[in-house]
Every structure is written in structure tokens, then in C-alpha cells.
Amino acid sequence: xxxxxxxxxxxxxxxxxxxxxxxxxxxxxxxxxxxxxxxxxxxxxxxxxxxxxxxxxxxxxxxxxxxxxxxxxxxxxxxxxxxxxxxxxxxxxxxxxxxxxxxxxxxxxxxxxxxxxxxxxxxxxxxxxxxxxxxxxxxxxxxxxxxxxxxxxxxxxxxxxxxxxxxxxxxxxxx
Length: 175
What we know:
The structure is a single chain. By secondary structure, this protein is mainly alpha-helical. Helix content is about 70%, strand content about 0%. The protein has 7 helices and no strands. The longest helix is centred in the middle third of the chain and has 47 residues, at about 60-105.
């Protein structure tokens, strides 16, 4: 026997224990990432936006406020530009996804030949509550064939017919 078949299956309790350990480790990793993110954000804020020196006269405080407002305006402009780029890229991604679907085409599954009567199809489509039948022959009228008897006189001798027509022709020519 190969070694892969000799291995025993995990018991459900062992499997649940391993799953809970994995979830606990993942939870700890997520918590650590959150803490690292907060520390990184504080470090970036301390570097990019140092606390202003508020000691001084009114003119220096107004100058500091103007600098802060200009920084805010620059940041808002860059944020707006980035948001516009992201929206543009999202639209482009959606268009490309649609093009991929169009190029790939819709794959139609191979249809299986099913032998089913018309009544069974209707019942499958409409459900069991509808009592519609597709027996078209029952709706047809019964028609009895009548044999038409042609008069035997008309069949007669064909030569006589031709002579009659010749007489008519002469009659038109003479007039």
C-alpha cells in the first residue's frame, strides 16, 4: 500500500482544534497589523505634520494658520486627483471586463436529446396544477370523404370535342 493510503483521517475534534488554532493565529496577526498601522500613521503624522510652535505674537500665529490652510488645500487637490484617477480606472476595468466577456462569448452547454411528449413538456413548464393537453388530433373535426362522381358524358370522344372547337373557330373567322 502507498503511504498516502496508510495515513489516518483527522478526527472531527482534531480538525476543529486545528481550525480554532489557525483562526486564533490569524486573529493575532490581524491585531498586530492594526497596531503596526496605528504606529506607522503616528510616525508619518509626526514627520509630515510637526506640531506648530504656538508661542509668539498674533502675526506669527496667523502666518502658521495660512501655511496650514495652504497645506490642507494642496492635500485636498491631490486627494481629488487621486479619486478621479481611481474612478477613471474603475470604469476602464469594468469596460475591459465587459470586452473580455464579449470576446469569450457565452458558452452554450451541449444540449441533450430528451424524449418527452408535448403533454409532459407542458406539465414540466407550467407545473402540475395546469391541466392543458396538447393532443391536437382530438381538436380536429372529423371529415368524411365524399367521392365526386364526374359525369361520364364529359369524357366522351375527344375527336368530337376538337371538331366542335374547330366549328367555333370558323364561326369567328367568318364574322
